[in-house]
Amino acid sequence: MHQPFVLRPGLGAWPRLLLLALLGLVLAPLPGLAQEAPASAASAAARTASAATPVSASARRVYERARTQLLQIRTLLKNQDSQASVGSGFLVSDQGHVISNYHVISEAALDPERYRLRYAMPDGRAGELELLDFDVRRDLALLRLKGDGLRGASGLSFRPREQPLSKGDRIYSMGNPHDVAFAVVEGTFNGLVERSFDPLIYYSGSINSGMSGGPVLDEEGRVVGINVSAMFFAQQMSFLVPAEFAQALFQRSREREALRGPAWPRLREQLLQYQDSLVQGFVAQPWRNADHERYALPVPQEDFMRCWGRSTPADNKGLEFQRSQCRMEHAVFVSGQLQTGYLQVSHEAYEGSKLGALRFAKQYSASFRNENLGRADRQRSAPRCREDFIQADAQQGPPLRAVICLSAYRKLPGLHDLVVLVTTVDGATQGALGRFDARGVSFENALRLSAHYLGGFGWTAARPR
């Protein structure tokens, strides 16, 4: 049996050296290392409205003014015209700059030797596109038309930030749904999504597959958002990236040369910056009270996570439990096989006095063993784990059994998936099992998150004597 680690009273977290020891085996060299579903065909998030809605005169007017700036963006195989995916985009300058979603062009960004980008317009004009830059955190891409065929054509303008929309304002989403034809969908601005780490607009309108990357315009034809995703199994629940982020991407990258080669280094740079911001915001928040009679358990604030809970019925005659699950509802899309950049926290508190100590121990241990800690795939290495027993000060909290695992990203060196699995080991017929997952974090931030999570376990005011 391992010797227990000892926490000094008042620290509320693991000392750094102990965490380094626990994770010491994880970062040995590994071979081969280098919000919703998107609404494009590449992400298979197709959803159609339950009935056709007549288009208003305002919608027709806005569409007719904007149609010459709309594009369908197709990802094709390099040496043939076979279509891999399709989305939408729009012109934002007379120099041929185009805004779309990152997920619309991700295949071409990550594998340019295999894929190429081509556009088509409502009037039949078509041509090639090149990628200048992207903002993977906000699922945006900046492209430019190749050649001079459309140079000089005007772009759509952005609504000024100092003129915010009001809830209930009519806005108009545009794109090419299901590769059928360019279309306009009239809907309502409903403010920003609650419990989202980055701002997202909640739009009451039907964004369908193929419309990702298309503009959403106000009554004057100015861009207020960009189509990005839709809620599964729901109607009229769609999400937009606020236009200010597209405008910022355009302003800072409009003079860049086209990206050459796979975009993994640029992705890594942006994801490392994002996870720093995410972790800093998360660890700055205190844990909430789980309302358990024995244990203080780490339940996150709901500023950018959503939590659900349930428990066994009052007349249950076997193992009783209380369960809490909290998760960020939006992830960062990297590819069709990899989404990252999110956190989730859960716990189950068990009471087994009706079972007796032996039967309780059997079921309690099985719950710990049945947790899936991940496995190797094309995107990540196999998890490298370390298990130990942690003895907190008796007045601070219960002794814990902990497993910490890291899986390295093969093409994004320095980023990992973290799993922390914890169980209390103090009670014969009581216990709590907790789990913390972080997708796409650095080693240093894995340490910070592990310490923050483990520091959330303790006794309630009614702790045992």
TrEMBL record:
It comes from the Bacteria. Pfam families: Trypsin_2. Keywords: Hydrolase, Protease. The keyword Protease applies. SUPFAM superfamilies: Trypsin-like serine proteases. GO terms for biological process: proteolysis. InterPro entries: Peptidase_S1_PA, Peptidase_S1_PA_chymotrypsin, Peptidase_S1C. One of its GO terms (molecular function) is serine-type endopeptidase activity. This is S1-C subfamily serine protease.
